[in-house]
Amino acid sequence: MNTSAGATTDGIVAVGLRKSYGDKTVLDGVDLHIPQGTVFSLLGPNGAGKTTTVQILSTLIPADGGEARVAGHLVDREADAVRSAIGVTGQFSAVDNLLTAAENMMLVADLLHLPKDEGRRRTADLLARFDLTDVADKPASTFSGGMRRKLDLAMTLVGRPSVIFLDEPTTGLDPASRRNLWDIIQDLVSDGVTIFLTTQYLEEADHLADRIALLDGGRIVAEGTPDELKRRIPGGHIRLRFADQYRFENASRVLAEAVRDEESLILQIASDGSIPALRGLLGRLEDAGIDAEELTVHTPDLDDVFLALTGRRKAGPADEAAHSKKAAKEFTR
Amino acid sequence: MSTSTYAVRDGMTMLRRNLKRMQRYPAMTVSVVAMPILMLLLFVYVFGDALGNGIGLDTASGARKEYTNYVAPGIILMAATSCAVATSVAVCMDMTEGIINRFRTMPIARSSVLVGHVIGSVIQAMISLVLVIGIALAVGFRPNASLVEWLAAAGLLALLSFALTWISAAIGLGSQTVEAASNTPMPLTFLPFLGSAVVTPDSMPTVLRWFAEYQPFTPINETLRGLLLGTEIGNDAWTALAWCVGLALLGFLWARSLYSRTAKH
Hints:
- Chain B: Its main location: membrane.
- Chain B: One of its GO terms (biological process) is response to antibiotic.
- The structure holds two protein chains of two kinds.
- Chain A is an alpha/beta fold.
- Chain A has helices spanning 50-57, 79-85, 101-111, 116-129, 145-157, 175-190, 202-208, 226-231, 245-254, 275-287, 302-310, 318-324; strands at 10-21, 24-35, 39-43, 65-70, 73-74, 86-89, 163-167, 194-199, 211-216, 219-224, 237-241, 259-261, 266-270, 294-298, 328-332.
- In chain A, strand 4 (65-70) and strand 5 form a beta hairpin.
- By secondary structure, chain B is an all-alpha fold.
- Chain B has one domain (3-261).
- Helices cover 77% and strands 0% of the residues of chain B.
- Chain B has twelve helices and no strands.
- Chain B has helices at 3-24, 26-46, 48-54, 63-96, 99-104, 112-138, 147-174, 178-183, 186-190, 206-214, 217-229, 236-261.
- Classes of the chains: A alpha/beta, B mainly alpha.
């Protein structure tokens, strides 16, 4: 299902967006090109300018320079046309805590000038889709963080937007709620909606996005599909550890390209870590009759991309470190 | 539908939202109404006799009784000012919560958020005024106003509430925290005291007397007193109206400029 904007329209286009607060430059010439019906993720550390970008594109604040079109309309001069096409779920939950879930939904429906019964129908459908039917008549103030975020997104969907901005939608959610929200986002994409997602979680961008841009210091420092970005990063390798000096020396004659670590009897071979590469490598060892003690595959993930391009490790909450650190897959034998 | 029809419709939607919020969060309304009522009881039963004699009212029928009539219009004004605090807090709470950014990214009439607040607050003020006047009648307030005078008094109070509400909406928009939004309008609550609400300005020191004569609440108070009790109004009515309209315009322009400028989150 494609929205009225049509398949030929770009979801979001921006050229040279600039914004500064006082003498602090937040955005320093940001270009974006996001086709309709795709998920684009803007990734960056705190203070990189992610939220500012969302605020400009969603008509909340004006840019100091540059031009942006969302759903085919200029964000500054055709703000109301843009607003009719977009939905925004920000970092801070945009629900009225004193109203019930259903009242919050109806408030949005009324503001969109939907007929009452149509508003009620969409409210019921969306609350059911987000598992909130049982709490429809409870005030939002009694909701957990995950429920509130779901209600927030449900309210955003009442107007059936063709472009949705999700500004760090899963920040502060527990892993189960996060997974749940990811499923919802993927459903939306299959309906042809364009999604602009900002996140601090590399795993999230990897999981959801068609294209990723890395924002650092107000500039886009890299852009591409998750795979393209990972390919740009050297550092994928296979590590082989041997039981003794004899095997180590033999193996290093067979695998002449390997980097030697004599002290720990480890050979490190640059590789993308794919199955054929692994099979080839093990085949060569087998032919020479050498046993390796331990094999470790290290594939670069977005963490490595981030590190390589911004020069610093993405600082996430402590519990996130374990969560997104699937870099080293160990195969011990 | 035209843009202006949408503006009215959006304003009404926001008004319904604010009325619902007032029902769900009655603590604010209660404190706003309780304050003038406590002041009324304090001035009638604690200070009534002394102040009635002190400002030289005709005490043939009892100083407290006469003083109740003297102080009631001032207390009624205080009820209007005390609602201003609630408006300021409500607006500030709205601005510091995420929902305002949702409204800003929807194709709705720009004015509707503030209009909803202002009309809601005026309704709240009128309800609280009815309560305060009811209690004043119960403790011995004896107005002699005709129906027309009552209607004129209601109109004046509605206009005053409207003006104060715009001012306090602007204060709420300009406040960074809810605490600040609650404290900043406080001086408004006390302005009637520095006029002719509690005692006649004649009994004050020179500087204060000068202030009392020229501040907005004195002519408003005297007009209200005149309408309800038949005392001399004179030019006070026009001065009172001019103040109310002026304050409303000032508050409206101030609030509008703050609203279009701020994009907090």
